[in-house]
């Protein structure tokens, strides 16, 4: 038997084994969660939490190895001008992130990061305005409008936060979409004229997120959502699903990757690792402040899978995963 065919068969067998493992862990965690909800005194918390954590760890490992491989990504040179080295660029990125964190301690962590991403996105959008398409612009505006209306009429009605999302989400989306397309780092099916494929990706990611959402319930994190009084209000989860995946995933991952890769085109993996790390730290800080434990756990369980789903799947996958985690909570 030719070595190529033999290797292909081994790879296929490994893939089937991994998918079987993922399916088994998913069923175990979801089954434990259902039994726990029916019989609260069943003592299944540990089993449910352990199987859910194991599923998320296996999912991260599977997505990290899934095609396209990082080494297959094209070289990139999007920004002209000064050519600082890779580690200097990393330092400057984290310096900027630190400044945003410091300002966020005074004006609100979520707002400071959204403001930075929105303003940077506006600058990139203006600089690349000739490459804009109607689809990118209208989809970005729709993302901002959905976020604003969701906050006003489904969420807690915070007018200032609603206006901030309306103004800052569209430029973050348009810039992120342009960068993502040039870097060939992921897909946005809606912009490709495949809304049905995007809906399928969204729904599939919702299924993948069920174990992570059960961990939220085990941690009693839903106790903070005291404003929910109607059956339809959990649909508000689509707002952070779209808004946070726009600035924290679509924009931050793409812009950091675009900044770092030209300094290390022969080693794209480390550029992508730092880009994802920047995204998950920023997103974790926006939720937990300077709680390092909360940032690490939140990043590993929620932000990292979303980032990998964006890269190995699509933006719709990332939104679906985020939506389901918040919706079940």
Sheet with most strands: none
Shape estimate: globular
Poorly predicted regions: none
Helix content: over 70%
Number of strands: 0
Distance between the termini: 52 Å
Q: Output the structural class.
A: mainly alpha
Integer-rounded radius of gyration: 20 Å
User: Averaging pLDDT over every residue, what do you get?
Assistant: 86
Secondary-structure element pattern, one letter each: HHHHHHHHHHHH
Oligomer: single chain
Enumerate how many helices there are, as a single number: 12
Proportion of strand residues: under 5%
Tally of distinct domains: 2
Can you put this structure into words, describing what you see?
The protein has 329 residues and is mainly α. The chain folds into two domains: 1-66; 84-328, no CATH class. Helix content is 74%, strand content 0%. It has helices at 3-38, 45-65, 86-107, 109-127, 134-153, 159-183, 195-208, 210-218, 238-260, 268-288, 292-312, 315-328. The longest helix has 36 residues, at 3-38.
Could you give a short description of this structure?
This protein has 329 residues and is mainly alpha-helical. The protein folds into two domains: 1-66; 84-328, no CATH class.
Labels describing this entry:
single chain; 329 residues; mainly alpha; 2 domains
Map the helices and strands.
Blueprint: H1 3-38, H2 45-65, H3 86-107, H4 109-127, H5 134-153, H6 159-183, H7 195-208, H8 210-218, H9 238-260, H10 268-288, H11 292-312, H12 315-328
């Amino acid at each position: 038997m030719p070595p190529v065919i033999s290797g292909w068969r081994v790879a296929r067998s490994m893939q089937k084994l991994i998918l079987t493992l993922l399916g088994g862990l998913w069923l175990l965690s979801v089954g434990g969660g259902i039994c726990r909800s029916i019989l609260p005194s069943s003592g299944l918390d540990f089993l449910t939490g352990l199987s859910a954590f194991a599923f998320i760890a296996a999912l991260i490992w599977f997505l990290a190895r899934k095609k396209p491989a990082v080494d297959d990504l094209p070289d990139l040179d999007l920004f002209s001008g000064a050519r600082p080295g890779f580690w200097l660029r990393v330092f400057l990125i984290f310096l900027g992130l630190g400044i945003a964190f410091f300002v966020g301690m005074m004006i609100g962590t979520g707002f400071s990061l959204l403001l930075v991403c929105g303003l940077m996105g506006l600058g990139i959008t203006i600089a690349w305005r000739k490459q804009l398409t109607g689809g990118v612009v209208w989809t970005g505006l729709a993302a901002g409008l959905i976020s604003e209306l969701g906050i006003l009429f489904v969420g807690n009605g915070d007018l200032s936060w609603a206006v901030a999302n309306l103004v800052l989400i569209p430029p973050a989306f348009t810039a992120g979409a342009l960068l993502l397309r040039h870097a060939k780092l992921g897909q946005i099916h809606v912009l490709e004229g495949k809304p049905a494929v995007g809906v399928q990706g969204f729904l599939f990611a919702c299924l993948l997120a069920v174990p992570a959402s059960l961990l939220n319930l085990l941690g009693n994190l839903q106790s903070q959502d005291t404003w929910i009084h109607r059956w339809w209000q959990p649909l508000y989860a689509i707002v952070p699903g779209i808004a946070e995946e726009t600035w924290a995933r679509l924009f931050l991952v793409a812009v950091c990757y675009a900044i770092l890769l030209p300094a290390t085109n022969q080693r794209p993996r480390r550029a992508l690792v730092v880009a994802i790390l920047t995204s998950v730290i920023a997103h974790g800080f926006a939720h937990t402040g300077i709680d390092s434990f909360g940032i690490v756990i939140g990043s590993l369980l929620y932000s990292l899978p979303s980032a990998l789903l964006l890269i190995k799947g699509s933006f719709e996958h990332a939104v679906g995963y985020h939506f389901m985690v918040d919706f079940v909570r």
